[in-house]
């Protein structure tokens, strides 16, 4: 049996028992809660326009984001479809969302994994190899767009999204 066989089995077990990522809910990019509450008519045009299928209407028929394993590509199709001035595409950044890594990252359990760094286009996630034995994922919050692409690939649901203003980070 190879020396790392037990680690490989453990990793497979983790991948097999993978649970769905929690579904974070935010208002769409270039909006905020107050604007959505006051202006959204519930027509659903932005919901239909989103090619990622990550928009839905809440119980009050106000638009919200529900990633469901996909990510926002910031394509602006939602904003283009809206006739109710809910979206302000001059707003930078588009939303105050940032990723957060918890202690359940497989690296902390000594299991090799870098699925999140592989998928992060802005390279906000990097492996710090100096942390023994397996390294640690570092998040560069200034580079994170909050797109959510890293949530679904994580085998142990170690990544969530949060509001950077609640964490004392610049929006
Ligand atoms: S920017 Fe594009 S991917 Fe993001 S919510 Fe709007 S339509 Fe969907
Ligand atoms: S949310 Fe998007 S930009 Fe931020 S770390 Fe995850 S993949 Fe990278």
Radius of gyration: 18 Å
Number of beta-strand segments? 7
The largest sheet is: 3 strands, antiparallel
Helix count from the secondary structure assignment: 5
**What is the domain total for the residues?**
2
What are the distinct ligands in this entry?
A: iron/sulfur cluster
Q: Termini separation (Å)?
A: 51 Å
Proportion in helices: 10-25%
List segments where confidence is low: pLDDT < 50 over at least 5 consecutive residues. Answer: 1-23
**Global mean pLDDT:** 86
Description:
This protein is α+β, with helices and mostly antiparallel strands and 171 residues long. It folds into two domains: 25-81, 2-Layer Sandwich (Alpha-Beta Plaits), CATH 3.30.70; 96-166, Alpha-Beta Plaits (2-Layer Sandwich), CATH 3.30.70.20. Helix content is 20%, strand content 16%. The strands form three sheets. A three-stranded antiparallel beta sheet has the order 1-3-2. A two-stranded antiparallel sheet has the order 4-7. The protein has a two-stranded antiparallel sheet with strand order 5-6. It is elongated. One iron/sulfur cluster binds at residues 99, 119-120, 122, 124-125, 139, 144-150. One iron/sulfur cluster (SF4) binds at residues 28-29, 49-50, 52, 54-55, 72-78.
């Amino acid at each position: 049996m190879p020396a790392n066989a037990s680690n490989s089995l453990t990793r497979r077990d983790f991948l097999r028992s993978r649970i769905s990522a929690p579904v974070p809910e935010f208002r769409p990019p270039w909006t905020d809660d107050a604007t959505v509450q006051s202006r959204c008519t519930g027509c659903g045009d932005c919901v239909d326009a989103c090619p990622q299928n990550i928009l839905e209407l809440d119980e009050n028929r106000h638009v919200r984001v529900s990633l469901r394993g996909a990510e926002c590509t910031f394509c602006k199709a939602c904003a283009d479809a809206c006739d109710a001035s809910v979206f302000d595409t001059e707003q930078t950044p588009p939303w105050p969302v940032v990723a957060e890594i918890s202690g359940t990252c497989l690296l902390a359990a000594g299991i090799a994994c870098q699925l999140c760094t592989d998928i992060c286009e802005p390279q906000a996630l990097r492996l710090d190899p100096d942390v023994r034995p397996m390294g640690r994922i570092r998040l560069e919050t200034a580079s994170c767009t909050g797109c959510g692409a890293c949530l679904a690939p994580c085998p142990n649901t170690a990544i969530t999204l949060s509001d950077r203003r609640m964490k004392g980070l610049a929006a």
